[in-house]
């Protein structure tokens, strides 16, 4: 099985990248993952629907051929980061070619704040449900995520590791 891994932050220093890495390391060997690169995507506009945009085609193909998608994202200004929203829009267009429809998707958020990116998670889930995705009911809103990571970016908090491991196992069960 193949999972498309979407990192909602385009920052190389993002905590969500480290959290996502920990989660995919929990996958069994028969599940492979492929990171969907979103930092080079032009902003979506319907004006581009009638032409081929190579970056759009690349991510649409990654999403289309994946058995499932794992989105791990921070929260920006109490909502979905712009780069992630752009990907969601690109994958849903042009009309009639929505790659999100029927796709199994899980959403996890992480934040250094007290709310764990809950608004971003809820907004992302709302968008995915509107696009017809099959969204995993289990949720991760990891608050004060920086306290769970070592200087090298490894998950060191045992409780957090257990929680993320359980979420990864639920995701694997969901997609199989």
TrEMBL record:
One of its GO terms (molecular function) is oxidoreductase activity. The keyword Lyase does not apply. SUPFAM superfamilies: Flavoproteins. Residues 1-146 form the NADPH-dependent FMN reductase-like domain. Its EC number is 1.7.-.-. It holds the Pfam family FMN_red. InterPro entries: Flavoprotein-like_sf (IPR029039), FMN_Rdtase-like_dom (IPR005025), NAD(P)H-dep_reductase (IPR050712). Transmembrane segments: none annotated. It comes from the Bacteria. One of its GO terms (cellular component) is cytosol. Keywords: Flavoprotein, FMN, Oxidoreductase. Its cofactor is FMN. PANTHER family: CHROMATE REDUCTASE (PTHR30543), NAD(P)H-DEPENDENT FMN REDUCTASE LOT6 (PTHR30543:SF21). This is Flavin reductase. It comes from Pasteurella dagmatis ATCC 43325.
